[in-house]
Amino acid sequence: MTTFTFEVVVTLKPGLSDPAGKAVGSSLSALGWTNVTNAKVGKHIVLDVEAADEGAARAQVDDMATRLLSNPVIEDFRIVEVAAT
Amino acid sequence: MTAAVPRIGVVTFPGSLDDRDALRAVATMGGEPVSLWHAEHDLHGVDAVVLPGGFSYGDYLRAGAIAARAPLLDQVAAFAAVGGSVLGICNGFQILCEAGLLPGALIRNRSLRFICRIVTLRVETAQTAVTRGLTPGETLQMPMKHGEGQWVATPEQLADVEEDGLVVFRYSSGEGIVDDVHNPNGATNNIAGVRNAVGNVVGLMPHPEHAVDPDVGPTGGQALFASLLEAALEGSPA
């Protein structure tokens, strides 16, 4: 068995209002970064998964992201990095 | 012979706040309140289920996300599938959406603020377990208190919800006018509550269980609990 480390990034779907992102954006403007035209806030989830191979682990993480880590009504997710130890 | 008293279960999750008020509202309206625990696999033969407000599991990940996967929710889903009446209030509404028993999702209020005040709701349909005693167009007053109550949906879901008459309550003025001025949290089309296709599962963000006692405020919640008790006795939705 190998331990695979996955990073899952969950973001609000485009077009949905993102009040947290908006608050961060206006706060950045207030600090002088007036060239920031958009800010989005999402979630970053790191998982260590034991599996025989990366493909099996990735399939499981994909399932986890679909069924629990994200809500398909309002969120998208992507698996951004994998490391094996 | 005494009249039958419906047994209404109220589920307590770690972080539930309004379970006691919900139990009390059931008793006030003439039902028998039954406490249910999230980690059990048994509804104890209740005639209807209430998922109360609060911050189940700290609302980690998303409001209601973890509770929607709690052991008892399988039983609640099975109960709903055979026509049992289920009412989700505030966090309970979020849980029902997360569990896929109701359409849409609840995100942060448009203002980013936690809002606690009395709101007016316009009843949109009487075809539900909690509005069967009401008339569409009627208005009710009750408190809202939430930070994540902005109801949103995919374009397909929204079209279905509107076309199929699944909107149960909209935020409105006292005269029943639905507009942006009377939309406290930015909810799509002022939607405060929705139902499933059959009408036995209903969720809303405002709190009917805090609005049954005239000593402490408006009593817009009475009619919802009265309807739920009736539906529970019949064992089938409106």
Describe this structure in words.
- The complex is a heterodimer of chains A (85) and B (238).
- Chain A is an alpha+beta fold and 85 residues long.
- Chain A has one domain (2-84): Mth169, Chain: A.
- Chain A is built from two helices and three strands.
- Chain A has helices spanning 19-30, 54-69; strands at 2-12, 43-51, 75-84.
- A three-stranded antiparallel sheet of chain A has the order 2-1-3, covered by helices on one side.
- The model of chain A has no long low-confidence stretch (mean pLDDT 92).
- With 238 residues, chain B is an alpha/beta fold.
- Chain B is globular, with a radius of gyration of 16 Å.
- Chain B contains five helices and eleven strands, in the order E-H-E-E-H-E-H-E-E-E-E-H-E-E-E-H.
- Chain B starts with 6 loop residues before the first strand and ends with a helix.
- In chain B, the strands form two sheets. Chain B has a nine-stranded mixed sheet, sandwiched between helices. In chain B, strands 5-8 form a two-stranded antiparallel sheet.
- Chain B has one domain: Rossmann fold, CATH 3.40.50.880.
- In chain B, strand 3, helix 2 (71-81) and strand 4 form a beta-alpha-beta unit.
